[in-house]
Amino acid sequence: MNGIFALPARFAPDSKHEYSNSGYVVLGWIVEQIGKDSWENTISKQIFEKLEMKSCGFGSPGLENQTAPTQPWGHAVENGKVVSLKPGIQSDNPPALGPAGTVHCSANDWRKFLALFLNEAPQEILSTQTLEKLKSKVDEQGPYTFSSIGRMEREWAKGSVYAMAGSNTYNYAIVAVAPTLNRIYTINTNIGDEKAEAGVTQILKELTQLK
Predict the structure, then answer these.
(1) Which of 55, 61, 75, 145 could lock 191 by a disulfide, CB 3.0 to 4.6 Å apart?
(2) Which pTM does this prediction carry?
(3) What's the maximum distance between 2 C-alpha atoms anywhere in the chain?
(4) Residues 157-172: pLDDT tens digits?
């Protein structure tokens, strides 16, 4: 954490918005300082348990001591060949980057979280005022909301779309939430190279054209 705090600011506070994994790491540290508990325990109690997201965990899914997959393994591309990665410390982001992206869960459980962008959040999780703030755009010029998910207007969605894509380099996922249509699109793949990204993006495009 001292390393992040030692970095010079890229721009003046409140002058612009920029997506930052380091920002999430700092936020996780703040949660731990306030709650006197790990960010993993806090997010499990405050979000996963309340939304009944029972498949959630941290780090790569599956069991490290098993030789056969119990969950889809991630993949890397080495010398032009696709190589599967056994669950463990080397098959995901390092734990220090956890708040920026080491959570895993099933597609069904992920949908329970994304449904917050469709409906009002349960009051024990977020107040209506807080949810609306997180869904609002930081500025009209950029695509990001205060929750750092993208928000843009799309004709196929008949209004706003909340969208985000991400990868730990071994998996890739993309999501689009269209509140007007009451639809959530999630496409996930257990490889994170450029071809996977292009394929997942094309699948999303095709799905959004379905009536």
Answers:
(1) 75
(2) 0.89
(3) 51
(4) 999 999 999 999 999 9
> CA of 64: how far to CAs of 31, 67, 77, in Å?
29, 8, 21
* Residue type at position 91: S
Cα 63 from Cα 71, distance rounded (Å): 8
What is the distance between the alpha carbons of residues 68 and 194, in angstroms, rounded to a whole number?
Answer: 27
Which domains are seen in the chain, by residue range?
73-90+105-208 (3.40.710.10)
Rounded Cα distance, 94 and 98, in Å: 7
Our separate counts of H helices and E strands in the chain read 6, 8
Task: Find the distance separating the first CA and the last CA of the chain, reported in whole Å.
Answer: 48
Q: What are phi and psi of 63, to 5 degrees?
A: -110, 125
DSSP letters along 15-52, please? S-----HHHHHHHHHHHHHHHTS-HHHHHIIIIITTTT
Assigned token pair, 169: 């380099």
Structure confidence by residue, pLDDT tens digits, 105-152:
999 999 999 999 997 777 788 888 999 999 999 988 889 999 889 999
| Surface-to-core class of residue 143, CB atoms within 10 Å of its CB (0-12 exposed, 13-18 middle, 19+ buried) | middle
